[in-house]
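Annotators were shown the component list below and the corresponding predicted structure, then asked to write short factual statements about the assembly.
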Amino acid sequence: MHRNPSNSYLGLEVASAFFKPIQQTAPPSPTKRHTKITVIGTGNVGMAIAQTIITQDLVDELALVDVNADKLRGEMLDLQHAAAFLPRTKIVASVDYSITAGSDLCIVTAGARQIADESRLNLLHRNVSLFSKIIPSLAKYSPDTILMIVSNPVDVLTYVSWKLSGFPSNRVIGSGTNLDSSRFRSLIADHLDVNAQDVQAYIIGEHGDSSVALWSSISVGGVPVLSFLEKQQIAYEKETLENIHQDVIHSAYEVIRLKGYTSWAIGYSVASLARTIIRDQRRVHPISVLAKGFYGMDGGEVFLSLPAQLGRGGVMGVVNVHLTEEEELKLRESANTISEYQSQLGL
Amino acid sequence: MSLGFDLTQAFFNPIQHSAPPSLTKRQTKISVIGTGNVGMAIAQTILTQDLTDELVLVDINPDRLRGEMLDLQHAAAFLPRTKIVASVDYSITADSDLCIVTAGARQITGESRLDLLHRNLKLFSNIIPSLALHSPASILMIVSNPVDILTYIAWKLSGFPSNRVIGSGTNLDSSRFRSLIADHLDVNAQDVQAYIVGEHGDSSVALWSSITIGGLSLLTLLEKKDIAYEKETLEEIHRAVKESAYEVIRLKGYTSWAIGYSVANLARTILRDQRRIHPVSVLAKGFYGIEGGEVFLSLPAQLGRGGVLGVTNVQLTEEEAQRLHDSAKTILEVQSQLGI
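Structure shown to annotators:
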């Protein structure tokens, strides 16, 4: 909230009546630029992300952009009205992209909502044309920013954003399978009665039906699960594992069927990524990155989720996780699935 | 949803000489009734701020209810371990420390809060007795509008002592008020002490005479420094606060985030026994000369684990006291038409 001169009820002299400056001061020096995050799209996903970021006190300034001016202003006011309950954060909004200038991170959620049972890839054509307007504007106003794409189908749209922005690939990522992996870890944690944060488990590849569960590298409290089972001679069936993976793939569809959309979980997921980036945490997250050159994926330029170390400058590198032959094969198939759709775009 | 094998025992070895877990102090449990925009904003903020061990959601629409529960559960890996459950059946709310009621019709643009009343009264006759039955020691917090009357109704229907039934009242109005003042003075809203009391609605009362910033009284300072201010200017700020909810409703269809933070803030004070003062809707009979009838309206009240500890003895000017009585009358008139 910044002062609106036309509403200056109390007048500036009141402020100066309250506070006396100390001796021998100078005007405030320009300190290190404050952190700024922009969220494009103030639908359910965008607002869940924005609100979680604010609640977790991750930024000094939050900018919201949408095409619907009324909704945009309403959402901005609703957040501003909570000012007394929050750390002092500047919250601004505009249909004009100039308001995004100087962002450290731009999060794009704009796009058509995924309808129940609509595969993420069917959304594609609706969203590509939208991005041709959004991405160049963001790149223009924040040439040093990190771009994070959330809109679905996220892998293809992250590729599209990379091309449209002209940014180096380490500064363009997609939220990818960060949430899928989190759901996966929660399911496993639930069964073992442990905290989900003690479970290391990745789902990678396409954020969609062809995602790949890396069973061979799941560990709990540092103990690798599958090899442990074998050592203890505890029998398990492949189908059981597949069922858990299918549960994860379908969980988003289930929520959409029940409440019309998903919002809270993706809000926490993206805020978690935002924290790692803005606070230079150098944590590993499974997110959509340029996968060319990894795990034998040399076919074309495709973005898909791999466990990547993230920091202030974006993607620092991809973790050298050991995949079984089968996992590698599935990953390459996932890459092919995405490449096929991309080729139809003619970018 | 089964792994088909029991791994837990294989993963962990118990330590020697241990006994089964002793019954530790009961976990904190919050129930939120109503999974609309307000209820979910409250639930999600409570979750993000890690205020409770167990969160319960209740609604009449089982699909949406289940969808909302799953959407929160799916974030488990990003949150401290919290048990999140949901049901259309009130038995799930048993032994709650705090029950937050948001159920009710949504306020339509231009509709005064009092117009909502009849729609919500009937709903509460189903909700409140069920909550009281399953959590006889709980604190009841009412958010649904018109909050003052519905808090009175909830008090009557629950049979609870008055210190355990409160309404979210003017907690948010006061917060908006403080933010507007803070904005003009370029200070942090948390350094501004300012209350709006009375009805959470058009007849609310701004307590200008007790506004302090960094401990300094605003009005006294203005007079001392001979800074002219007009009463109208002050009224405009108050009106801006009253209009702000209507403006958000007009623009986005409803309000959610701000009330979410406001109620989570109250929940924290109660569950963590913070003993902070909040302007919330309490039984006002006997305070500031309000003797006419049993009415709930917002007064600055100290809150803690047991609910309302007491009402602050704020000095009111004659005019402020008069407006407060008028506000009480406004509410009592409507209450009398209900025939409770």
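Statements collected:
1. Chain B touches chain A through 78 residues (CB under 8 Å).
2. The CA atoms of residues 21 and 177 of chain B lie 49 Å apart.
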